[in-house]
């Protein structure tokens, strides 16, 4: 009859603690050289007692890395699924509820404050919250340390959400680790990841001597028999039926055979249909008359037991039904223990079992499995030779070697400054061609001298704040956005915290219940009843930036409450620029403020109106949304690109990229090739002549933001180059060859025919600081 066992490990000499199994080699000199660079580290993934392969991998990875870095402090971050918390061991320092986006942001702030040198992420789409696990990006994009991401799944044909999240994950990771060459190939060909960002490291495996199986068979009640084994959470994709159908033919040549099917039924399967699938396998075995040769071990096994039962196995079989499994931990374990393997050609097996390391059979081909398994079982010599080849092949996968690879790569990322800095979605690793002017954050002295307890002054007279012109909401909301966007990764200060409340109070006071007032005199009297549509849209953007930030909870709650009141009033904003900014704002509000369906509907309508403008005014060589170019021009094509991304409409992305290309052609010096922003003197000329001055910082900021968005969405690296070209304008790559940046973080008010405008107003200096922030957050 069918057997169902609940067995334990036998004699004490067969029991191995995780440290003995996972990391047994002494530290190499290479590791010793790398270790001092990593004083504090973090690892994130599932963790036991949660029962899944990713949990045991995270635990084993932590064990081998902590052994490789014996002096390092560790943060171990465990993901909790919606079913609740777990009784974790003491090494787990943090628990993140899967579907709480704020928890991911708080984690980032905590890790930054703790001085973590490197973050190791175990990535699988199903364990993080949001569509395709996008909440993880909320954490990683805020970190100021290298992120080394191990990809446990690399999808060749991702859906739209998976593709979007994967693109963001690629950009925020300093290194992507895959456990098979096939994964690296997919990263290169499907996701266009450069080779320099990819590292192939095999799945870790234990180190035990290649030994006799018989003494282990006794423990599991199969002494004196030949054994097959399949391991893992039981589900239909395992292909167990293929082997059960093969058993009658195998038994003809090897009647003393037991097939061990080890593993609990997958929890999701139990939740939906109980043990119906396991029962169906038992019924199949009875119908074929092989029930006496099958042993179900119906529970989750820890590593020590798994290793023992693998050593009780003559042949390990993985008859999986599809090819798209990039890695199998138990296959790695089986090979490391010298087990002959017969498998279907899923990706990991096809790669690992080549050149005689194991045997491949076609999917669902029971006859082929019967033939190959019988040949191995009836030839001790053939089986022993394959066992030795498997053992030798797997030497690089020993946990100690795997730890060396991870530690040395992380140390190299620290050396080269590959830091995932910033909280703007879609931040890639640092640029391949770094510039000196991105190395250090600009000083805040200029912003501080331009601010008082009311807000930031609108204009400057040379370096002085010009009190004659008072304040404006446009600049105070930009200043609030700047602090929000830098929160959690640029060094904070008490002065900056105070200024955040000052700017927020100004914005709050500006709201009339219908729109934001803009201009206030030095005596703190409002000079208007309501600002322009563009001003209102920019101010709403600062609220969303605050909601998404690492600023204090009370500021984020204030911003969310006010944003919820402002968004309905935005229906009355009709300028094209405000529509484009609104698309940017609403796309960032998704998941934070408002109803998702309503927001997508609104973005669809706004993009339609933008498109209408483009259709109405494009004529011959004038591919634009308005009769003439004016200020903040690049916001318009950026709006189409962002709408296309959010609505998954490639035609919108293409139109936005095309119009941005046209705009960049207008903003390029034909002689030097440097960036030349659309000057104020061109605003009323219908785009028919190419005036040179005055050139304003605001145009540079809008342009590089749009180019960074285009790069993030299209993955076309020319947009990264265009962003660099625009940012270089501040530092002297312009028509006069003059830097506009001062040592105290100030910025001159643009370029005139005579050189730099020596005044330093809030708009210009904030445009520079926001531009630096965007570059660092995306590069």
UniProtKB/TrEMBL annotation:
**Organism of derivation:** Asticcacaulis endophyticus
The reply to whether ATP-binding figures as a keyword in the UniProt entry is no
GO MF, one term, reads: glycosyltransferase activity
What is this protein's name?
A: Glycosyl transferase
- Which Pfam families does its entry note? Glyco_transf_4 (PF13439), Glycos_transf_1 (PF00534)
Domain Glycosyl transferase family: start-end pairs: 217-391
Q: Where is the Glycosyltransferase subfamily 4-like N-terminal domain?
A: 65-204
One GO BP annotation is: carbohydrate metabolic process
Recorded hits in CDD domains, A to Z, give:
GT4_mannosyltransferase-like (cd03822)
Give the Gene3D superfamilies listed for this entry: Glycogen Phosphorylase B (3.40.50.2000)
Q: InterPro entries attached here?
A: 6-hairpin_glycosidase_sf (IPR008928), Glyco_trans_1 (IPR001296), Glyco_trans_4-like_N (IPR028098)
Key words of the record: Transferase
């Amino acid at each position: 009859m069918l057997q169902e066992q609940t067995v334990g490990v036998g004699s004490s000499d067969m029991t191995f603690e995780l440290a003995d199994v996972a990391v047994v080699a002494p530290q190499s000199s290479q590791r010793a050289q790398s270790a001092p660079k990593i004083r504090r580290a973090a690892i994130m993934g599932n963790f036991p007692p949660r029962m899944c392969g990713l949990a045991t991998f995270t635990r084993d990875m932590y064990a081998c890395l902590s052994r490789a870095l014996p002096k390092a402090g560790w943060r171990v971050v465990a993901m909790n699924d919606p079913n609740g918390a777990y009784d974790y061991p003491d090494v787990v320092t943090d628990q993140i509820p899967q579907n709480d986006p704020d928890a991911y942001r708080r984690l980032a702030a905590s890790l930054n404050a703790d001085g973590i040198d490197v973050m190791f992420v175990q990535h699988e789409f199903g364990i993080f919250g949001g569509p395709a696990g996008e909440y993880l990006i909320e954490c990683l994009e805020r970190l100021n340390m290298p992120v080394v991401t191990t990809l446990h799944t690399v999808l060749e044909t991702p859906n739209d959400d998976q593709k979007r999240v994967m693109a963001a994950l690629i950009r925020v990771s300093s290194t992507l680790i895959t456990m098979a060459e096939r994964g690296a190939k997919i990263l290169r060909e499907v996701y266009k990841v450069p080779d320099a960002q990819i590292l192939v490291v095999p799945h870790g495996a234990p180190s035990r001597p290649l030994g006799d199986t018989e003494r282990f068979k006794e423990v599991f009640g199969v002494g004196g028999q030949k054994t097959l084994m399949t391991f893992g959470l039981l589900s239909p994709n395992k292909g167990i039926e293929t082997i059960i159908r093969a058993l009658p033919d195998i038994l003809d040549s090897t009647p003393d055979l037991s097939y061990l099917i080890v593993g609990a039924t997958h929890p999701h399967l139990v939740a939906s249909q109980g043990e119906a699938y396991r029962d169906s396998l038992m019924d199949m075995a009875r119908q074929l008359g092989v029930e006496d040769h099958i042993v179900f071990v119906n529970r989750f096994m820890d590593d020590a037991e798994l290793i023992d039962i693998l050593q009780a196995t003559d042949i390990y079989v993985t008859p999986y039904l599809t090819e798209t499994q990039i890695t199998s931990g138990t296959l790695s374990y089986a090979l490391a223990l010298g087990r002959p393997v017969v498998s279907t050609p899923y990706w990991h097996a096809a790669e690992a079992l080549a050149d005689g390391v194991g045997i491949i059979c076609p999917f669902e081909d029971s006859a082929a499995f019967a033939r190959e398994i019988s040949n191995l079982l009836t030839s001790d010599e053939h089986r022993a030779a394959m066992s030795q080849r498997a053992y030798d092949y797997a030497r690089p996968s020993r946990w100690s070697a795997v730890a060396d690879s991870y530690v040395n790569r992380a140390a190299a990322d620290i050396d080269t400054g590959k830091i995932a800095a910033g909280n703007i979605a879609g931040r890639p690793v640092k640029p391949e061609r770094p510039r000196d002017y991105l190395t250090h954050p600009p000083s805040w002295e200029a912003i501080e001298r331009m601010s008082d307890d009311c807000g930031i002054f609108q204009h400057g007279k040379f370096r002085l704040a010009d009190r004659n012109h008072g304040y404006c909401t446009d600049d105070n909301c930009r200043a609030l956005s700047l602090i929000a966007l830098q929160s959690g990764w640029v060094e904070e200060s008490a002065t900056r915290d105070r200024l955040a409340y000052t700017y927020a109070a100004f914005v709050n006071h500006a709201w009339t219940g219908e729109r934001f007032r803009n201009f206030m005199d030095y005596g703190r009297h409002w000079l208007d009843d309501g600002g322009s549509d563009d001003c209102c849209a920019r101010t709403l953007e600062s609220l969303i930036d605050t909601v998404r930030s690492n600023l204090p909870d009370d500021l984020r709650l204030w911003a969310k409450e006010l944003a919820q009141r402002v968004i309905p009033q935005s229906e009355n904003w009709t300028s094209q620029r405000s529509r484009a900014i609104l698309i940017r704002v609403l796309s960032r509000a998704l998941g934070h403020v408002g109803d998702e369906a309503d927001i997508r509907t609104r973005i669809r309508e706004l993009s339609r109106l933008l498109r209408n403008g483009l259709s109405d005014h494009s004529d011959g060589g004038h591919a634009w949304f308005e009769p003439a170019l004016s200020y903040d021009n690049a916001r318009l094509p950026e709006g189409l690109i962002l709408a296309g991304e959010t609505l998954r409409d490639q035609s919108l992305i293409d139109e936005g990229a095309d119009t941005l290309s046209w705009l960049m052609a207008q903003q390029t010096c034909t002689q030097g090739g440097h960036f030349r922003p659309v000057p104020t003197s061109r605003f009323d000329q219908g785009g028919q002549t190419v005036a040179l001055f005055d050139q304003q910082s605001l145009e540079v900021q809008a342009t590089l933001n749009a180019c960074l968005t285009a790069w993030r969405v299209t993955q076309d690296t020319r947009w990264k180059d265009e962003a660099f070209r625009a940012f270089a304008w501040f530092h002297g790559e312009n028509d006069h060859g003059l830097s506009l940046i001062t040592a105290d973080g100030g910025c001159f008010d643009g370029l005139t025919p005579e050189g730099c405008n020596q005044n330093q107003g809030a708009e210009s200096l904030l445009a520079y600081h926001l531009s630096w922030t965007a570059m660092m957050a995306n590069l």
